[in-house]
Design a protein that fits this description.
This protein is α+β, with helices and mostly antiparallel strands. Helix 1 crosses helix 10 (315-356) and helix 20 (706-744) packs antiparallel against helix 21.
């Protein structure tokens, strides 16, 4: 009996039932996909780190290592109780002007990546192939990072070349490399794996095409790699301080395990978080969608409900009858959404599988998404039970007599039609009805509000990532060109040569020089910690500061958000820093955002010792008539040991994978929002016209044309839509920024400010939503012509 009633209910409302089913399926599909992406990311990253046997601490060094220095490192490792194993890896850094990838006639002068040729490590920090096995390369071949496989569509059998005109080596791609240390596109260094014999030949000629660099790597005791978690950061800091205090080679960046973990996870983790945010919003919308459906059903079947009550069917039985339909619908939608998620998640995990590989399948990959879907099912059922409590208020006599629920709402906002001499009467009646029944229309408003929010937040975030202004979140002021000079034997001489060239270049309008040095700062508990300080004039290419301003004299220092948080310092606080043999007291003058170097940087203006220099950076602007790309080419050819970057290219190359994923989510969010608008508008208007059937019939009898009555309903819908879009846009730029900032704060960007494309966010997206709603409204109110005053009186 119950199954027959449920089946009849489905057949009577095929379109609404199908649409609602799809909507529930979509909600569960996204929740399952989002949780699956997070699980896949964690497990694949963990699996990659374990297979690669990643080090916990890495000290880069850009100068030649003497035998004495090598022995000192080995002795330090042997004597230090924290050290489990140590190795020093040699990198052959190839200048971009001497590197040819795929196109044998064009050098990589526009690349933002530092390319190193290496041989396979012997003890740990292994470079893996696409099967996550230690890659082996035959003579004449080379294994290329997956970053270039994706960026340049490189394939097995393609050639790459290293050449300065007089010396040349050509290699055939035999494999692609997953590098747990430098995998992420946000890490601007990449390692190519060579055969031992080829490596020695290139090493003997490295002065022609590149320079040496070293990775001094340590594995520490009791820091396991068998789980995705932040290792004991205090122990890593303790070891870092011990290494720096030992006066060992340190002319370069220091990298810790948790920084590598964070940089590998950020791109795909960001995509997963956006999916989860959209799915949570969809859950809320699906509940309102159900509410609309239930209320529309009660409105249409009000008299039938009264009859069932009159013949003795109890309230619990009535609720059971109607609830059964929604239980079946929710269960079917949830199951199908869960099954389909296994196909959809492949789209979102494609980048994870490419860069990290597939971890062994575990029960958690099935159980957690299934649990998330089951929770959604329970929430839907409990919400349906709550809405169906309206049965308790239905009077059998009143339902049989009137046939409508007849809910009234006091009209506190009056709109006097008699005083209006300009506006069309039908438009006025539509506005008056919305103002008189705000409680009813607020449901539709909430749906339009969330639809606008779902569209605009991903669009604004995508536009922010693609904007040149995003460079400010990397702790760098906006400029046309950036020159990076990494540590090497002749770094000071090369720096002066570039500065002199720039000063004589008439195409350069503005330039500024910055040097990064490593010092020690007194942290909490009177413990000395390492800190990288960038020194220069920061008024030339200014940053945006969350608090305070840039340093203006030698006694001030600005901190990145993560450094300020770690050191427990705010604007106005003092900081003790060790500079050579002296301690200097500085005042914190500003706090800024930075997602580079693990998010821990600082900026100051005091004098520095050349022995403490890690690297130099020069920023420059060119004249309006100058081609930036041509300038990049000119400087790359003139200074082959200097990395010259177009800032726009830097953002595109380092964030390309994330941007492509977010583009996919933008399209998905847009389609979802349009589907929501169509579904909810049609459901709402179906319920509203059923409720207003007698009123519509009366207006027809008074001479109102059907087209005029339809205009009233279009006016009602557009008024609610306009308010929803306006407030949804405001919320997207406030609450949406807050959601994104919450995630980005983990990497040093605690306050993301959306960079908005007005044409896209304020014109195109709202217009598409408005057009969709208008068409849906007209189609939904076509049935108005069937309402008759005679039929209403008889009923």
């Amino acid at each position: 009996m119950l199954l027959k009633i449920v089946k009849k209910g489905f057949l009577r409302k095929k379109i609404i039932t199908t649409a609602l089913f799809i909507f529930i399926m979509l909600s569960t599909l996204l929740v399952a996909s989002g949780t699956s992406v997070i699980i896949q990311l964690c497990q694949s990253l963990n699996y990659l780190f374990v297979k690669a046997d990643l080090p916990h601490y890495i000290q880069m060094h850009g100068e030649a290592l003497s035998q004495t220095e090598r022995e000192a490192i080995e002795k330090f490792a042997a004597d230090n109780q924290l050290v489990m194993d140590q190795q020093t890896s040699e990198l052959l850094n190839i200048y971009s002007s001497n590197l040819y990838l795929k196109d044998m006639d064009t050098a990589e002068v526009n690349s933002v990546m530092d390319v190193s040729f290496v041989k396979q490590n012997e003890r740990f920090d292994y470079l893996l192939n696409l099967d996550n096995k230690i890659v082996e390369v035959a003579q004449g071949n080379i294994a290329v990072p997956v970053y270039y496989m994706q960026l340049k569509d490189m394939k097995l059998g393609d050639s790459i070349k290293v050449s300065d005109g007089s010396f040349e080596m050509t290699f055939t791609i035999s494999d692609f490399v997953r590098d747990a240390q430098m995998n992420s596109s946000m890490i601007s260094s990449k390692r190519f794996v060579m055969n031992e014999a080829d490596y020695q030949l290139l090493r003997n000629n490295i002065d022609r095409v590149g320079a040496f660099e070293y990775e001094i790597e340590f594995k520490l005791n009791n820091l396991e790699l068998n789980g995705i978690h932040f290792s004991d950061i205090n122990k890593l800091s303790e070891f870092s301080n011990e290494y720096q205090a030992a006066d060992l080679p340190n002319k370069g960046t220091e990298i810790t395990y948790h920084v590598l973990l964070l940089m590998n996870a950020i791109s795909d983790g960001l995509v997963a978080v956006v999916i989860i945010i959209i799915s949570i919003l969809l859950i809320f919308i699906s509940l309102f969608c159900l509410r609309f459906t239930i209320l529309a059903t009660l409105e249409e079947e009000y008299r039938e409900i009264g009859v069932m009550k009159a013949i003795g069917i109890g309230r619990k039985d009535l609720r059971k009858i109607y609830l059964s339909k929604y239980k079946v619908m929710a269960a079917a939608g949830a199951v199908l959404g869960y099954v389909v998620s296994f196909l959809v998640q492949k789209v979102f995990t494609k980048n994870i599988l490419l860069y990290m590989g597939t971890a062994p399948v575990s029960a958690i990959q099935i159980v957690i998404p299934l649990l998330a879907v089951f929770i959604i099912f329970l929430v839907i059922i409990q919400f349906c039970k709550h809405v169906l409590k309206k049965f308790d208020k239905i009077s059998a006599v009143e339902a049989i007599r009137s046939g409508t629920m007849g809910e009234k709402e006091s009209n506190r906002l009056q709109l006097k039609i008699s005083k209006s001499k300009v506006m069309n009467i039908n438009i006025l009646l539509g506005i008056k009805d919305v103002l008189g029944r705000l409680k009813l229309f607020r449901l539709l408003f909430f749906i339009f509000f969330l639809s606008a929010f779902i569209i605009i937040v991903p669009v604004n975030f995508l536009n922010t990532l693609q904007s040149p202004e995003f460079i400010s979140y990397m702790g760098v002021g906006r400029s046309d060109l950036r020159f990076d000079l990494q540590q090497s034997e002749d770094i000071d001489q090369r720096f002066q040569e570039v500065v002199s060239y720039i000063q004589d270049d008439e195409d350069i309008t503005t330039s500024a020089q910055f040097v990064t040095c490593r010092y020690q700062v007194l942290g909490e508990g009177d413990i000395w910690e390492n800190i990288n300080v960038e020194i220069g004039d920061f008024s030339v290419f200014p940053l945006k500061y969350l608090e305070g301003a840039a340093p203006a004299n030698e006694n001030e220092i600005a901190l990145s958000t993560l450094n300020a948080s770690g050191l427990k310092k705010g604007v106005g606080d003092t900081l003790i820093i060790q500079i050579g043999e002296q301690q200097k007291e500085l005042t914190v003058c500003g706090i800024y955002q930075d997602i580079t170097n693990g998010g821990k940087t600082a900026k100051a203006m005091f004098s520095y010792n050349e022995d403490s220099v890690l690297w130099y950076v020069i920023s420059a602007d060119v004249t309006a008539s100058t081609s930036i790309q041509e300038k990049v080419k000119e400087y790359s050819q003139s200074f082959d040991k200097v990395k010259v970057t177009n800032i726009d290219d830097y953002i595109k190359q380092t964030l390309s994978a994330t941007i492509n994923q977010i583009k996919l989510l933008v399209m998905l969010a847009f389609l979802i929002a349009v589907f929501i608008a169509v579904l909810i508008t049609s459901l709402f208007l179906k319920m509203l016209t059923a409720k207003d059937s007698s009123q519509i019939a009366i207006m027809k009898s008074l001479g109102f044309p059907i087209s005029g009555i339809r205009v009233q309903y279009v006016t009602k819908t557009l008024l609610v839509l306009a308010v929803g879009i306006i407030l949804g846009t405001i919320a997207a730029n406030t609450l949406g920024e807050g959601l994104v900032s919450t995630f980005m704060s983990a990497v040093g960007a605690s306050k993301i400010e959306f960079i908005i494309n007005p044409w896209m966010s304020y014109l195109l997206c709202p217009c598409v939503l408005i057009l969709t709603v208008v068409i849906t409204t007209f189609l939904s109110v076509l049935s108005i012509g069937k309402f008759s005053i005679t039929k209403t009186i008889v009923e």
